[in-house]
Amino acid sequence: MSDTASSARGDLGLSHLTKSYGDFTAVNDLSLIIPKGSFFALLGPSGCGKTTTLRMIAGLEEPTQGTISLGTTDITYTKPYQRPINTVFQNYALFPHLTIFENIAFGLRRRGIKDVDDAVNKALDLVELPHLAQRKPTQLSGGQQQRIALARAIVNRPALLLLDEPLGALDLKLRRQMQIELKWIQKEVGITFVHVTHDQEEAMTMADTIAVMNEGEIEQMGSPAELYDNPKTAFVANFLGQSNLIKGSITGLDGANQIVDLFGQKISLQKDRSHAVDNSILAGIRPEKFRISRLETSTSGNILTGGKIEDVSYIGVSTQYQVLMPWGQELMVFEQNDDGVAPFSVGESVNISWEPVFTFALRGDDDAEAGTEVNPDEDLEEE
Amino acid sequence: MNTLSRWFGRNLLRIYAVVAFTYLFIPVAYTFAFSFNDSGKSNLIWKGFTWANWQNPCGAPEVCTALGNSIKIGLLATIFSTILGTMIAFAIGRHKFKGRSTTNLLIFLPMATPEIVLGASLLSLFLVFQINPGFWPTVIAHVLFCMSFVVVTVKARIASLDPRLEQAAMDLYANERETFRRVTLPLVAPGIAAAALLAFSLSFDDFIITNFNSGTMTTFPKFIYTSAARGIPAQANVIGSAMFFLALAIVIVGQLVTRKRKVS
Amino acid sequence: MTGVKKRGISTPYLLLIPGMGFLFIFFLLPLFNLAQTSTQTPVGGGDTGEYEQTWRFANYFDAFVENRDQFGRSFLYALIATVLALAIAYPLAYTIAFKGGRFKNVMLVLVIAPFFTSFLLRTIAWKQILGEEGFVVPTLRSLQIISESTTLTSSAFAVVMGMTYNFLPFMTLPLYASIDRIDPRTLEASGDLYANGLTTFRRVTLPLSMPGVVAGTLLTFIPAAGDYVNAAILGSPQTKMLGNVIESRYFKIVDYPTASALSFTLMISILILVTVYVRKAGTEELV
Predict the structure, then answer these.
(1) Overall pTM surpassing 0.95 (yes/no)
(2) Which of A84, A289, C19, C195 shows the greatest Cβ crowding within 10 Å of its Cβ?
(3) What distance in Å separates residue A332's CA from the closest CA in chain C?
(4) What is the pLDDT of residues A47-70, one digit of tens each?
(5) Are C5 and A62 inside 8 Å of each other by CB?
(6) Whole domain around residue A300: which residue ranges?
């Protein structure tokens, strides 16, 4: 049994995976397939069940229900040391009593490989830290420890590499650098990466496919562009970047477009970008898609009038505006500071316009606040 | 004057520490000094300086027998209490099981019992089974009271172990036994070593419990107590001082070794 | 507890059996036996040392009444010694924790080091230092601090002093462990919020170090209450403690029932005091 498990290869399949602790369900009937060789991200706020899912894949937690398979092999109840899966832990979990070399060699030795020098040195080269081989983990910086933890996992050439928020403890610049490096390493070695994070920018930068999780379930899964441009739920719309969600109702059709009434003003959106189930919808537009213009300037596309600027924040790359609309809602607008046109100031009356194709529509009964909890670690969106 | 009082105020605690340490060491210094006394049988008044005692530490009758017994008992008690205590510490610290808090309480009780009660009750038990007090009853008594201290020390060390290290080991293909052998044990080892050291010190210096359970066998503390009436030979001072310096040396060397390992 | 599938339930029990078995045989059983002995009476007309089980609970009453002086004295001395030890050890532990710097470990070693010289040697050393032949008494006499006839040894003063001295490491180490855990930034925060040195100590440092205080006082009081060595070496017949009585009832005047009754009473009273004290001090996890 262990031989079959350890040589399993292929796509990772989770089928109706559930994990409950007494009354509390951490992971609820999760099913997905992670294709071999892809960079997959499990994205969601803390407590959404992403780490629990990861630990079940690693074998460090046992599912309450459901199965996990690697290729054609069922590994649901296989012990962690029998699975060809390795984990990069959140706080690295490097063995403090072993040298860096021995840390990396650990998995190889346990598998009975006698001559480890070559593999270990190659792994050290991959993370560009060959000179640290004889040091101890406590002598390394956070960034170095993180790369060694990665080397220690990769050197075993697993079928699947799990990363549990590995970049969380690094400072911003280092994190950015590591994101790029991780992506490059994944392409180099071709191993399937499953990356768990709460940082949506990180997920979008690195992953081919993202699964957004909330309260134990997958809200939506797809490529970063798909999720960003066409979110299916308010949670996804708010969690990934920021969205303006405006209550409205469908009043008619115009070819491939739906005509929508937003508090008395009319806009249009493409029918196939609507996930509503009836006529009541939440119309969604990303802040960077909005254009602000003075009342006398002529604009095209969907137009909302009657806006008054309430707040202006200059971010360097862009300027962020809060615009109060006649129906009492404040809309967010990000304008890029690329043409030196004098920015708008507080109190000005403006129109907001955008290309209709950028509108998406969510179910009217969805919670417009879902996914908006402020995470102090999250960066402001940059353009 | 102002600067003087300010200096005094800032360093008050440090001055206090110096005074306190001096207080702690006065009897040690006294013992050491009198180990050089040309005293003959009774070491009460200073008679003159001599190296003789240090050159012939076993000169007084029974001193070295007593010392030998103390060391033998100490080693045996350390080995047994460390093994038994470590096992208990792992059981309590690593597993959830029914009766865990009762076990915890039971381990704590010997520490909360005055030595005289421990010694007396064991003596009673031995008498009932008509076992004469002596070497092995003393070893048993020592194992008893050392065990609780071992459990507490090792349990603390186990508690500070990051469980993710063991998970990482299993993630890297080590099964439960290998994980224990290669990760858990090496990381808990300093705690076990500290517990063993503590057990030995407690055993070596024990008097009350030993007094109840040793019968005619003498240990070093018992020798000192019984010879206090007739006069403690200076050789006892020699041995006491030697133990002091030896233990101090071991600890200092241990410190240097760990510090060196951290740097290199 | 590590999140891995639970191993077979046998493992913790297997680990426990040797140690707990030992504890059962050599701790619980003897205590049970002690309780039994305490209610025996000497066989009338039989040899010394022969007793019959008569379940005479009056033994306890007799023993207590006969030795109530020693009882009171034991707890009084132990209490004073504990308080003194606390007073001496707290500033010391504080200094090591906060002002120790690089020398923290060295200072800790220095606290334990005297321990390695047999405590009997040290206690007897004090007897000689404080005795007629030492230098303390003649000096104090010539400075007219004490009168010609006062002796420091063979006194309650010496006994308490000896106890305080001998249990100092037991008080210092738990105190240190607790004080060392205090994040110095909480003290800074206290100062930032208008508390002066004394107030910071009273409202921040002391409460945060309570677990250490409780552990240290227990580790000192419990052995001190049952001690008899200090009383024997540094005391006189007027300073006899309960421990001395128990010891003599076992070895000099053979009277096992009384000795057992006294031992048990000592243990129970300490247990009661400890439980009340711990409840009041509010620390749950002691070990």
Answers:
(1) no
(2) C19
(3) 39
(4) 899 999 999 999 999 999 999 999
(5) yes
(6) 242-363
